[in-house]
């Protein structure tokens, strides 16, 4: 190539020849680079081509690699399909007998779902926990005490100095926490709350000799209290108006509705010696009388206001009076130490 360039340089002017030399040199460099890249590409192709066809060890390795990749991909798809099928089958079994209800989701501060089961409305959270599959197997004991009610009709919870949280000490039978298995594992007397209708209580209740107290409340106050309770929920509050909730309540669409089916179901069973039916109103109107009724029903003694007279002697009473007067002399707080005889007798 240089032999061709020399005559060109000698027959032309220097500047022009130099330009042509640079131009030709660039062409040569580009041509050489392209040729080099082509050779590398061909060499690489030959390397892999030859190695995959001529090297038996490498050929087996590549074959196993391809087979492993195909097996892994197929296995992943099969597992995903199996899990989806299992989940679908489990969900189908879980929702057997349930009908999902149409609700206005704009009335709630979260995604909610409601289902109707054997005539009653239940929240999706309880339904999906699988509790209705476990309830039939729950065994009540003779020493168990159950407090049943429609939501917001009152309860018999008492304040004490127990360090045990209320949900554990007095749990709801159908709530996911602490769960029906945890309740079943407890020893000794068990105190359980429930909003379940009487028709959905575990069948073991009938012959268990367990005691059940049902608290009813007039439907108007129940609906108003229910509304304000739902408004106060932090995770999923009711964001509709009182009027919209009243319509839901009267249409038997509120959770644990229908109201009257719930109340009348227990009312009709009030003659059962294992069931005590009381009302929220009578509990507030004459609490002492109702408390005595509950105590007799549970076969426990209840101390009266004024029972201290039986246990304290004159010197101890005088000591109490001096101690009380000393601490209350600058206060208008006054305690009731005895009740009128009529009220005590109930």
UniProtKB/TrEMBL annotation:
Start and end residues of each Sulfotransferase domain: 146-303
SUPFAM superfamilies attached to this UniProt entry: P-loop containing nucleoside triphosphate hydrolases
Keywords, in A-Z order: Transferase
Coiled coil spans: none
InterPro entries named in the record: P-loop_NTPase, Sulfotransferase_dom
Pfam family, one: Sulfotransfer_1
Oxidoreductase is among the record's keywords: no
UniProt keyword Nucleotide-binding present: no
Highest taxon above the source species: Eukaryota
Xref: Gene3D superfamilies: P-loop containing nucleotide triphosphate hydrolases
A GO molecular function held by the record: sulfotransferase activity
Family: Belongs to the sulfotransferase 1 family.
The protein's name: Sulfotransferase 4A1-like
Native source species: Homarus americanus (American lobster)
């Amino acid at each position: 190539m240089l032999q061709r360039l020399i005559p060109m340089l000698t027959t032309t002017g220097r500047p022009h020849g130099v330009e042509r030399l640079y131009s030709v040199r660039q062409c040569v460099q580009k041509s050489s680079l392209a040729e080099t890249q082509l050779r590398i590409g061909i060499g690489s192709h030959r390397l892999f081509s030859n190695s995959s066809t001529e090297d038996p060890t490498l050929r087996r390795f590549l074959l196993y690699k391809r087979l492993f990749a195909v097996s892994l991909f197929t296995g992943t798809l099969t597992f995903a399909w199996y899990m989806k099928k299992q989940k679908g089958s489990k969900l189908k079994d879980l929702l057997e007998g349930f009908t999902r209800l149409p609700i206005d989701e704009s009335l709630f501060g979260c995604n909610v779902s409601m289902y109707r089961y054997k005539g009653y409305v239940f929240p999706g959270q309880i339904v999906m926990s699988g509790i209705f599959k476990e309830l039939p197997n729950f065994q009540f004991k003779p020493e168990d005490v159950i407090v049943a009610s429609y939501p917001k009709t009152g309860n018999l919870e008492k304040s004490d100095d127990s360090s045990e949280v209320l949900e554990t000490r007095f749990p709801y039978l159908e709530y996911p926490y602490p769960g029906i298995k945890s309740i079943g594992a407890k020893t000794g007397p068990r105190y359980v709350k429930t909003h379940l209708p009487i028709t959905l209580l575990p069948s073991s209740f009938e012959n268990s000799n367990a005691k059940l107290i049902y608290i009813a409340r007039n439907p108007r106050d129940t609906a108003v209290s229910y509304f304000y309770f739902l408004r106060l929920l932090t995770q999923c509050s009711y964001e509709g108006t009182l009027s919209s909730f009243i319509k839901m309540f009267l249409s038997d669409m509120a959770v644990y509705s229908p109201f009257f089916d719930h109340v009348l179901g227990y009312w009709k069973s009030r003659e059962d010696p294992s069931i005590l039916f009381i009302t929220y109103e009578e509990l507030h109107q004459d609490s002492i009388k109702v408390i005595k009724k509950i105590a007799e029903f549970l076969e426990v003694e209840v101390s009266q206001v004024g029972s201290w007279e039986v246990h304290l002697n004159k010197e101890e009473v005088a000591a109490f009076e001096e101690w009380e007067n000393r601490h209350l002399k600058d206060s208008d707080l006054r305690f009731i130490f005895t009740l009128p005889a009529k009220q005590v007798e109930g």
